[in-house]
Structures are given as C-alpha cells and as structure tokens.
C-alpha cells in the first residue's frame, strides 16, 4: 500500500502498475490522480476509444468488466478500464451487490489482467475515520493500493498555492499558511471552492490576512446562525441536517461545538441586556457587534429562548466539550446529542 504522494512520484518516473485500487475519503484527490494516470497512458484523441467506465455501486456482475479488459486497445498501446465508487470493496454488512458474494472471483481475475489493460478501482470511505478493511488488505499482493488521505501541512500548502497560481493570483506565505490552517481537514474540492471565493472577494488587489479571516468568519457565523435558528424553532431534523452539511463541507466537530457555544453565549448576553431595557446601539457597543444585520438576527433568535433555556444550552455545550476531551466517545454522536438535548 502506498500513499498518494508516492503514487505521484512513481507516475512521474513512468512506473505504472497493471492494476490499481484507490481508496480514501477525498474523492476529488482520487479522481485527479486517476486523470493524471490516464493522461500518461492514452492520447487525448483516443480517449473515447480506449477508456471504459463502470459505476461500481450499480454493477450487477463482473463479466462486463472482464470483457472490457480483454478487448484490445484501438490505435494505442494501452486501454484503461475504471470501476468507480466500487462499494463492494468496503466492509459494510448486508451490501446488496452480487459482487459482494463473488469477491474471490474478482481477486482471482486481478492476477490475469492482460498487459494491454490498466484496470482501476476506486472506493470512497464513508467518513474521515474509516480505514482500509480486510477485503482491501487481502488484495494488497495482487493490486497496487493507493491510499488518498486528505492533504495536510506542506502538501496542502503546495496544492493550494497551485490553485491560486492557476487563477493568476499570488498569495504570500503567511496568508497561505493561515488559509491552509483554516481549511485543513477539508477535501480538495471544498478547498478549491474557497480559493475561488477568496479570489473573487479580493479581485483587483492583494490578498490580506484580514480578507481570509473575514471570509471564514462570515461563512461560519451564517452557518451557525442557521443551526441555532433551527434549534430555536424546535426543528431537530433541520438542525441535524445543517450539522451534517457543515461536517461534509469539512468543518471540524470541535470547531462547530465552539461556534454553537459562542452563539448561545451571545444570545444570553443580548437577552440579558434587552431585559435590562438597553437599546440596540448600546448593546452593539457593549458586546462589540459590528454588523447591524448580525445583531438583528441574534436579537430575533434571543427572543425565542428564555434566560433559563439559554443558560442550560451553554451548560450542555460545556458538558459536551468536557466529554469530548476526557472520554473515548464518538464526537459526531456527542454533537448530535447536544442538538437533541437543547431542543428537548
């Protein structure tokens, strides 16, 4: 088993295997790597004739894949057969595909793939905590397994810098590192989307630290407003859905928790000041709230809670944070319980 960086180095040197299995939580990174591999093997004008794709999530039998592999390439030395989203490579119990029952047949064929064909599978993990299972390890001798973990550190910085370069923008090292620290843990698709937003936000001028902080704070606050708003409306399903969207988008669970706790703290203070007959401008000054729009939303939300409810919600946040730090628990489950308990 090799990592995505080693795969890239091997590809540059022309070291190409007969069969590959890409697995990991970052589908964007997997697809990029496969695209680079295909680019090394087949000329663009012959792609349609020598590149065959199958959807692994709906594949009923492996015979069609074998037939594609056995067919000779046309005006090319190689052909590529890709089975994408190959769910049968996972360990999920009760998976319906017939291929789950014929896994040994698939493993047997991997030893007999013709030299003219490059057979590729890719399997996307269900969550960031998933790891290669027994099935994947059983294939390690018969296929080159490439694990596509989400990029971190210098790898992520280099890739992000490339995203900016493609868009004709420069970003200084300090700003680049700040951006990457905020984006670490996201898939590359989400990272590229944020690069695009930042380029649009700073169009015609240099990218500054303040731009990055403002952009991330604005996005985060709006998302948390929505979660707390769902809680205030007793909409558990909506709150859980919004939380899942935040996690899917790459937000870290402890960060989501901190933002929810911060929001409840702010609502508590606003409600306390409102009950003390303070005016909007005075409250904004006391709490250092710069945006009138943001204040109006929070003031409206605060009216949907009593002080007792807000105080209880803050305590629930603190207890959840304590559990995450001191116990061996599933963080996502703890966050879901927090939402359930704040609505109860």
From TrEMBL:
Gene Ontology cellular component annotations, sorted alphabetically: DNA polymerase III complex
Domain DNA polymerase III delta subunit-like C-terminal residue range list: 221-341
Domain of life where this protein originates: Bacteria
Domain DNA polymerase III delta N-terminal: 20-148
GO molecular function: DNA binding; DNA-directed DNA polymerase activity
Annotated EC: 2.7.7.7
Catalyzed reaction equations: DNA(n) + a 2'-deoxyribonucleoside 5'-triphosphate = DNA(n+1) + diphosphate
UniProt cross-references to SUPFAM superfamilies, sorted A to Z: P-loop containing nucleoside triphosphate hydrolases (SSF52540), post-AAA+ oligomerization domain-like (SSF48019)
Keywords: DNA replication, DNA-directed DNA polymerase, Nucleotidyltransferase, Transferase
GO BP: DNA-templated DNA replication
InterPro entries recorded: DNA_pol3_clamp-load_cplx_C (IPR008921), DNA_pol3_delta-like_C (IPR048466), DNA_pol3_delta_N (IPR010372), DNA_polIII_delta (IPR005790), P-loop_NTPase (IPR027417)
Pfam families reported in the protein's UniProt record: DNA_pol3_delta, DNA_pol3_delta_C
Top-level enzyme category: transferase
Family: Belongs to the DNA polymerase HolA subunit family.
Name of the protein: DNA polymerase III subunit delta
Organism annotation: Clostridium luticellarii
